[in-house]
Amino acid sequence: MFESLTQKLSKLFSRLGNKGRLSEKDIDEALREIRLTLLEADVNFKVVKSFVAGVREQALTANVLESLTPAQQIIKIVNEELVVVLGKEPSRLAAASRPPSIAMLVGLQGSGKTTTAAKLALHIKNSGQRPLLVAADTRRPAAIDQLVVLGRQLDIPVYSEDASATPLTICRQALKQAERIGATWVIIDTQGRLHIDKALMDELARLKSEIKPSEVLLVVDAMTGQDAVNTAEEFNKNVGLTGLVLTKIDGDARGGAALSIRFVTGVPVKFIGIGEKVSDFEPFYPERLASRILGMGDVLTLIEKAEKAFDEQRAKQLEKKMRTSGFNLEDLLVQLRQIEKMGTLSQLVELLPGFSKFAPSIGHGDEENRLRKIEAIILSMTLEERRNPTIIGGSRRRRIAKGSGTTPGDVNQLLNQFYQMQRLTKMAAKGKLPRDLMGMMGR
């Protein structure tokens, strides 16, 4: 996710860290590089202009120029401005005053709208509510069958009719069905088009007027960059949106759509799709995404994933260990064995402080083989070494490498990454950044 943007920013912060104190000229040069980096990432020029101006205003204060660690101050400022651009506070689903609440999903064909409807329904179901899916996309031949199959897999009811029925008729009957079964949310998969046209907008506007949904969510493909922003503007102008869902964000190496769409449209991003599985769906947290972009991981999301994968007691133990640096290689091994429940290896690594820069290479290779390699290294250690890896010296590294079929360099790399994760997590828990953060982010 956003690998190109993250790598370039990390290199810039590393160079700033080597300079010691910064002059106004140093800051202006850094801002020019940030401006170029954001434009290359397909971020809207209005967003870039506002972002750079906000960073410069704060960076030229005495607190930064006279600081002994100005580069850390710059990172803090960039992080805060990213959060502002992304929307400051997370935006939740708005429920109706009396059930059932209605979420109407709109978007172009190919954006992942039908799959997103199922993902949203599963998210609502997991929160303890009762969703009903409605197959109102009668234009795409396979849309109805696809939603019915997904509903069956997730054990979520789906209301559907023959493709000859109008979307409005389907929705009216679906609302009656929702009352009969006691559904608290109705999620409607509407018709899409290959491109925006007046007929599509008029149809969606009429449907919205008739069924009066509490949420109108536009599903857009993050990988389309500025096209996603333009699509959101058109839908918001013609239909009126309450929120956005960015799909395929795990494949978005640049980040232009995610960094632009809220600022340009004024519509909050409410969810992001991070993979193909129905469980690869997350509420959108601006602060967490900003942290990921800067390569600093996302411990909170990691903990939430762990809580779903482990029992409550195990999750509390894991959280305590991570926040006190008690997390050891034995715990890491258990974590890695739960990857199928928590997501792919690249998704998990991206959430670990100090590890995120390795996520692109993991994501582009054979993840299963890499996982087996890490597991083999840890299994070749003694119990004492796993619990206290600081005792692993040269001879132990060679023994571990031989036993795992790897090299001492592979063992070193795993240990170094693990130590970085430990230190950053402990500092983050105290609300501080370590002095050598730039070194951990790319040096």
How would you explain this protein's 3D organization?
This protein is an alpha/beta fold and 443 residues long. The protein has 3 domains: 3-86, SRP54, nucleotide-binding domain (Four Helix Bundle (Hemerythrin (Met), subunit A), Up-down Bundle); 101-292, P-loop containing nucleotide triphosphate hydrolases (Rossmann fold); 295-440, 434 Repressor (Amino-terminal Domain). It has helices spanning 3-19, 24-40, 45-59, 62-65, 70-86, 113-126, 143-154, 167-181, 198-211, 226-238, 256-265, 286-293, 299-309, 312-323, 329-336, 339-342, 345-351, 359-364, 367-379, 383-387, 394-404, 408-429, 437-440, and strands at 101-106, 131-135, 158-159, 185-189, 215-221, 243-247, 269-273, 281-283. An 8-stranded mixed beta sheet has the order 3-2-4-1-5-6-7-8, with helices on both faces. It is globular. Residues 433-443 have low confidence and may be disordered.
Apparent shape: globular
Low-confidence stretches: 433-443
Tell me the CATH topology of the largest domain: Rossmann fold
Beta fraction: 5-15%
| Number of domains as seen in the coordinates | 3
Number of helices: 23
Average pLDDT reading: 83
Terminal residue distance: 21 Å
Strand order of the largest sheet: 3-2-4-1-5-6-7-8
Question: CATH first level of the largest domain: which class?
Answer: Alpha Beta
- Rg over alpha carbons: 24 Å
Percentage of residues in helical conformation: 55-70%
Please count the beta strands (DSSP E, at least 2 residues each): 8
Largest sheet: 8 strands, mixed
Q: Which structural class fits the helix and strand makeup?
A: alpha/beta
